[in-house]
Amino acid sequence: MKYNSKTYNKEEFLSVTEFRTATRILASLFENGPMSKTELALRCCTSNPTCIEYLNYLLSMGLVQTNLFEDGYVLVMITNKGRQACLRGFNYAEVI
Question: Which CATH number fits the domain that encloses residue 76?
Protein backbone atom coordinates (compact mmCIF):
# COMPACT_ATOMS: atom_id res chain seq x y z
CA MET A 1 0.00 0.00 0.00
CA LYS A 2 1.41 3.36 -1.05
CA TYR A 3 0.51 6.43 0.97
CA ASN A 4 0.96 8.89 -1.87
CA SER A 5 1.49 8.83 -5.62
CA LYS A 6 5.30 9.09 -5.59
CA THR A 7 7.08 5.86 -6.43
CA TYR A 8 10.79 5.21 -6.13
CA ASN A 9 13.24 3.19 -8.14
CA LYS A 10 16.84 2.19 -7.62
CA GLU A 11 18.05 5.10 -9.75
CA GLU A 12 16.84 7.55 -7.10
CA PHE A 13 19.66 7.69 -4.57
CA LEU A 14 19.24 8.78 -1.00
CA SER A 15 21.54 11.34 0.53
CA VAL A 16 23.51 10.26 3.60
CA THR A 17 21.02 12.03 5.89
CA GLU A 18 18.07 10.40 4.13
CA PHE A 19 19.80 7.02 4.33
CA ARG A 20 20.23 7.43 8.09
CA THR A 21 16.54 8.27 8.50
CA ALA A 22 15.47 5.31 6.37
CA THR A 23 17.70 2.93 8.32
CA ARG A 24 16.45 4.37 11.63
CA ILE A 25 12.88 3.55 10.56
CA LEU A 26 13.89 0.06 9.44
CA ALA A 27 15.87 -0.56 12.65
CA SER A 28 12.91 0.55 14.77
CA LEU A 29 10.66 -2.00 13.05
CA PHE A 30 13.35 -4.67 13.44
CA GLU A 31 13.81 -3.99 17.16
CA ASN A 32 10.21 -3.24 18.17
CA GLY A 33 8.10 -5.27 15.75
CA PRO A 34 5.06 -4.16 13.75
CA MET A 35 3.47 -0.81 14.59
CA SER A 36 1.31 1.92 13.15
CA LYS A 37 2.87 4.59 10.97
CA THR A 38 2.09 7.22 13.63
CA GLU A 39 3.85 5.22 16.36
CA LEU A 40 6.76 4.66 14.00
CA ALA A 41 7.05 8.39 13.29
CA LEU A 42 7.05 9.13 17.03
CA ARG A 43 9.69 6.48 17.78
CA CYS A 44 11.92 7.77 14.98
CA CYS A 45 11.43 11.46 15.85
CA THR A 46 10.03 12.36 12.43
CA SER A 47 6.80 13.98 11.34
CA ASN A 48 4.06 11.77 9.91
CA PRO A 49 4.51 13.10 6.33
CA THR A 50 8.28 12.52 6.50
CA CYS A 51 7.82 9.02 7.88
CA ILE A 52 5.30 8.20 5.16
CA GLU A 53 7.71 9.37 2.47
CA TYR A 54 10.42 7.05 3.80
CA LEU A 55 7.93 4.21 4.21
CA ASN A 56 7.04 4.57 0.53
CA TYR A 57 10.71 4.26 -0.33
CA LEU A 58 11.18 1.24 1.94
CA LEU A 59 8.01 -0.33 0.52
CA SER A 60 9.26 0.11 -3.04
CA MET A 61 12.55 -1.56 -2.08
CA GLY A 62 10.68 -4.49 -0.52
CA LEU A 63 12.12 -3.85 2.96
CA VAL A 64 8.78 -3.25 4.70
CA GLN A 65 5.16 -4.17 4.08
CA THR A 66 1.83 -2.91 5.34
CA ASN A 67 -1.43 -4.55 6.37
CA LEU A 68 -4.64 -2.57 6.14
CA PHE A 69 -7.39 -3.66 8.50
CA GLU A 70 -11.12 -3.21 7.94
CA ASP A 71 -11.28 -0.32 10.43
CA GLY A 72 -8.63 1.59 8.46
CA TYR A 73 -5.76 0.81 10.83
CA VAL A 74 -2.47 0.35 8.95
CA LEU A 75 0.17 -1.90 10.48
CA VAL A 76 3.75 -1.51 9.19
CA MET A 77 6.12 -4.46 9.48
CA ILE A 78 9.56 -5.44 8.27
CA THR A 79 9.94 -8.05 5.52
CA ASN A 80 12.45 -10.89 5.43
CA LYS A 81 14.56 -8.80 3.04
CA GLY A 82 14.50 -5.91 5.52
CA ARG A 83 15.33 -8.24 8.40
CA GLN A 84 18.33 -9.60 6.51
CA ALA A 85 19.54 -6.05 5.81
CA CYS A 86 19.36 -5.33 9.55
CA LEU A 87 21.18 -8.53 10.49
CA ARG A 88 24.01 -7.89 8.01
CA GLY A 89 24.34 -4.27 9.05
CA PHE A 90 23.14 -1.49 6.83
CA ASN A 91 24.95 -1.17 3.56
CA TYR A 92 24.16 1.97 1.58
CA ALA A 93 24.50 0.12 -1.72
CA GLU A 94 21.93 -2.52 -0.68
CA VAL A 95 19.27 -0.15 0.56
CA ILE A 96 19.30 2.25 -2.38
Answer: 1.10.10.10
| pLDDT value for 94 | 54
- SS3 percent helix, strand, coil of the chain, rounded to 5, is 50, 10, 35
Overall domain count for the chain: 1
For residue 7, which of 44, 73, 55 has the smallest C-alpha distance?
Answer: 55
Read off the pLDDT of residues 43-63 as tens digits, 9 standing for 90 and up. 999 999 999 999 998 998 899
Residue-number span of the structural domain to which 37 is assigned: 16-95
Backbone angles phi, psi at 64, to 5 degrees: -135, 165
